[in-house]
Specification:
By secondary structure, the chain is of the alpha/beta class. It has helices at about 25-30, 50-70, 85-95, 125-135, 155-170, 190-195, 210-215, 220-225, and strands at about 10-15, 35-40, 75-85, 100-105, 115-120, 140-150, 180-185, 200-205, 230-235. The protein has 2 domains: about 10-105, 3-Layer(aba) Sandwich (Rossmann fold); about 115-240, Rossmann fold.
Length: about 240
C-alpha cells in the first residue's frame, strides 16, 4: 500500500510544555492531511479527569493555536485533545484510529535544507519513498539515503539505495537533489546519530511490532533525541 494524494500525518504535540516553532515543517505538510494530537501527560498517581478539569481550557487554546498555524497554510487539520497516562499508547491508538500514514515528531528547526533517510532494507521502503515524494514536492531540500552493509553484500546495499533513488526521481523529485551513502561501520546506529547532526530532518521507517516501540523505543529515541531533529516516522500499515 503506497501513500496517496490524500495521505494523513499524525503530529503529536505535548500541551504541557512550550510549543516548538514549526513553520518549515508546516510547509512540508501542505501536500497531506494532518491529524494534530494534542496530548497532556498525566502522572501515574493523578486522575486524568482532575488534570482535564484544571488544564483543559488552556490546553484546548494551545491546540487551537497550533491547528490554526497549519490551517493558515491551507492544510486540512483534524485536532484531537487527550489527557493520558501513556503517550506512546495514545499515539498508537490515534494513529490507528485515523489511519495515519506517518508520524511527525516536532523539533525546533529554522529551515529544511538537508534530509537524511536511513533505510534498513526493502521493508516499508515503498512507503518511505512515497512519503518523500509527497513532502519533498514542497521543498527544494537535498535528500540522502543511508544504508548499512555490515550484514549484507555491498552490491546488495547499492542496489537497494539506487533503486530508492530511481523511484524517488520517477515520482518527480529532481535527481540532482538525491544522494546515497553506504556504511560498513560495526555500529550503524551510532553512525546514523553522528551523521544526522549534519541534517535538518530525518525520515525513518517503522521496524518493530509496536508503533510506540518504533517511535519511542531504544534505537529511534537515540536517533531522534540525541540529534534533536524533527523526524517523520513512516508507518508500516501491514503490521498495524
Amino acid at each position: 500500500m503506497s501513500l496517496g494524494s490524500n495521505s494523513s500525518i499524525l503530529v503529536p504535540v505535548d500541551l504541557s510544555s512550550d510549543r516548538p516553532s514549526v513553520p518549515p515543517l508546516i510547509d512540508l505538510c501542505r501536500s497531506v492531511d494532518v491529524v494534530l494530537l494534542g496530548y497532556y501527560p498525566v502522572p501515574d498517581q493523578a486522575a486524568p479527569a482532575q488534570l482535564r478539569q484544571d488544564h483543559e481550557s488552556a490546553a484546548a487554546d494551545t491546540l487551537a493555536e497550533t491547528a490554526d498555524e497549519f490551517r493558515d497554510s491551507g492544510i486540512d487539520v483534524t485536532d484531537v485533545l487527550v489527557f493520558t497516562h501513556d503517550r506512546t499508547d495514545t499515539i498508537d491508538r490515534v494513529a490507528n484510529e485515523y489511519g495515519c500514514d506517518a508520524v511527525l515528531t516536532l523539533r525546533e528547526v529554522e529551515r529544511i535544507e538537508r534530509v537524511l533517510v536511513p533505510v534498513r532494507g526493502d521493508t516499508n521502503l515503498d512507503r518511505i519513498v512515497s512519503l518523500l515524494a509527497a513532502v519533498m514536492q514542497m521543498s527544494d531540500a537535498s535528500i540522502t539515503f543511508f544504508h548499512s552493509v555490515v550484514d549484507s553484500e555491498p552490491s546488495q546495499g547499492e542496489f537497494l539505495v539506487r533503486g530508492a533513488v530511481d523511484r524517488l526521481a520517477e515520482a518527480g523529485i529532481e535527481r540532482e537533489r538525491i544522494d546515497w551513502q553506504l556504511s560498513d561501520e560495526d555500529s550503524p546506529h551510532d553512525e546514523i546519530i553522528e551523521l544526522a547532526r549534519e541534517y535538518d530532518l530525518l525520515i525513518l521507517g517503522e521496524t518493530k511490532p509496536s508503533l510506540g516501540e518504533r517511535i519511542f523505543g531504544t534505537i529511534p529515541t537515540r536517533i531522534i533525541d540525541e540529534v534533536d531533529r524533527p523526524a517523520f516516522i513512516v508507518r508500516d500499515i501491514e503490521q498495524n
